[in-house]
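Key result, reporting period 2: structure in, sequence out.
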């Protein structure tokens, strides 16, 4: 009996060996060699330097340098990476007392090791983030140790200790290979009149200090192929200038993010960009502005800040005038605060008509004191061809505006009768004001096909009740389907 079982076991083993041998014959020679290689062999170290350095470029510099202790093969591999990101937060959480030079010591050590080899790989991207006890002298030293002629991307975000702004090296303004510079913080932008940046395509400036009234325009004029600009200006950065006007006259610019945190009416902005396609504006409209040649803008995001010295009725009129320059857009996003401001314009019959607008989105919060349907209906009135309407919950600064109801009822918006087919509410909480908004849309939209609500996961306990309540609402469109989905929101 036992001999029989042993014989069966041996036969099964032999059959498995023959089957494995047959399968190996079907594999390539490289795969067969890999299967017969000792599992303890370091295969990754046999890869070429170019591939390994590319892999290391995705790691933080701290981890990349740490690979140098693996073996002699890895000792200098990290120096071949053409990307160097030096972020103070990565090396130290907090620097105080006698540790104030710790970040400096670490960075100098990295530079020393990197330059110790012969013919180090030229840097293509350099990032320096130093937000605590930054000393501009050291940043200047590190930049001078970099071959700026080969640099394609430069990110600088610094806050100096004594509010002494950092001066960019003059030769940086004449770089023939720089493509993406992004500067933030205590950095003095002071380009010489003859500067030239022929390859610069993407520019980011946040809270930098403009040396004079012509600093920004000179920098933009020196960038003949610029197509993306992100500009954030604070009033405190302009206090040393009696008058100032941001002038964006760039014929190649396609995308602009303008964050205008300037409350004083003394400062102005002027935008003239015939190739413009995307425009995101956040901030105040206290001062004068000029918007020209924006007929090619197809997508815009508007978030007007309400804290203003103007009467709210005058501010609302300026907001409508601002939007009038964007009448050709196809897609528009408005903050709920912006929608509230627009309701304060008493002349609702003279608004701009957005004939090409097919998608409209409101983002922000809805107050229980605000009858949001008035603002939504007002915007729909000026978008006769609108097809997609969406709402997304977002945490914005609270509004202190007194709720404004429309004094005279508007005619039924044309889009509700013939074009609006899709509505999506993302971040639905089931609050009374949200339920009322959905109820009004279902009641008014005659060709609506889909009403989708995405609810937060924590509403599981009341989700069924909300669904039942929504399905009871009157629907003008018999083909409208109400769908529910779950999501996570911050």
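The corresponding designed sequence is given below.
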């Amino acid at each position: 009996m036992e001999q029989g079982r042993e014989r069966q076991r041996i036969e099964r083993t032999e059959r498995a060996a023959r089957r494995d041998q047959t399968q190996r014959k079907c594999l390539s020679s490289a795969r067969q060699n890999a299967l017969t290689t000792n599992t303890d062999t370091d295969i990754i170290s046999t890869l070429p330097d170019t591939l390994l350095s590319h892999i290391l470029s995705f790691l933080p510099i701290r981890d990349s340098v740490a690979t140098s202790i693996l073996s002699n093969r890895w000792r200098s591999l990290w120096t071949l990476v053409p990307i160097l990101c030096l972020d103070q937060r990565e090396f130290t959480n907090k620097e105080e007392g006698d540790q104030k030079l710790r970040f400096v010591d670490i960075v100098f050590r990295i530079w020393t090791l990197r330059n110790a080899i012969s013919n180090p790989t030229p840097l293509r991207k350099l990032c320096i983030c130093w937000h605590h006890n930054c000393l501009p002298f050291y940043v200047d030293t590190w930049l001078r140790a970099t071959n700026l002629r080969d640099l394609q991307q430069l990110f600088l975000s610094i806050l100096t200790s004594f509010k002494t702004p950092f001066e960019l090296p003059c030769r940086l303004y004449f770089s023939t290979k720089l493509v993406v510079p992004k500067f933030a913080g205590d950095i003095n932008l002071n380009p010489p009149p003859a500067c030239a940046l022929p390859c610069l395509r993407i520019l980011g400036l946040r809270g930098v200090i403009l040396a004079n009234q012509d600093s920004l325009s000179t920098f933009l004029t020196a960038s003949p192929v610029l197509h993306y600009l992100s500009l954030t200006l604070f009033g405190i950065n302009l206090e040393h200038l009696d008058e100032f006007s941001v002038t964006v006259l760039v014929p190649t610019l396609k995308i602009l993010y303008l964050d205008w945190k300037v409350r004083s009416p003394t400062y102005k902005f002027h935008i003239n960009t015939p190739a413009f396609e995307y425009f995101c504006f956040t901030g105040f409209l206290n001062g004068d502005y000029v918007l020209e040649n924006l007929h090619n803008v197809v997508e815009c995001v508007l978030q007007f800040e309400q804290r203003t010295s103007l009467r709210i009725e005058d501010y609302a009129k300026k907001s409508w005038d601002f939007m009038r320059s964007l009448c050709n857009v196809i897609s528009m996003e408005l903050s709920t605060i912006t929608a509230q401001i627009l309701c304060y314009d008493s002349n609702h019959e003279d608004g701009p008509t957005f004939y090409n607008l097919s998608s409209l989105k409101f983002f922000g919060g809805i107050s229980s004191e605000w009858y949001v349907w008035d603002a939504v209906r007002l915007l729909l009135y000026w978008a006769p061809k609108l097809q997609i309407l969406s709402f997304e919950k977002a945490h914005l600064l609270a509004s202190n505006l007194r709720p404004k109801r429309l004094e005279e009822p508007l005619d039924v918006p044309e889009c509700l009768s013939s074009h609006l087919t899709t509505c999506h509410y993302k971040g639905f909480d089931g609050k009374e004001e949200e339920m009322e908004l959905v109820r009004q849309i279902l009641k008014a939209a005659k060709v609506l096909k889909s009403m989708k609500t995405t609810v937060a996961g924590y509403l599981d306990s009341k989700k069924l009740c909300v669904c039942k309540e929504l399905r009871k609402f009157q629907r003008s469109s018999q083909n409208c389907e109400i769908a529910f989905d779950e999501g996570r929101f911050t």
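The radius of gyration is 31 Å. The longest strand covers residues 125-134. This case is discussed further under Risks and Mitigation.
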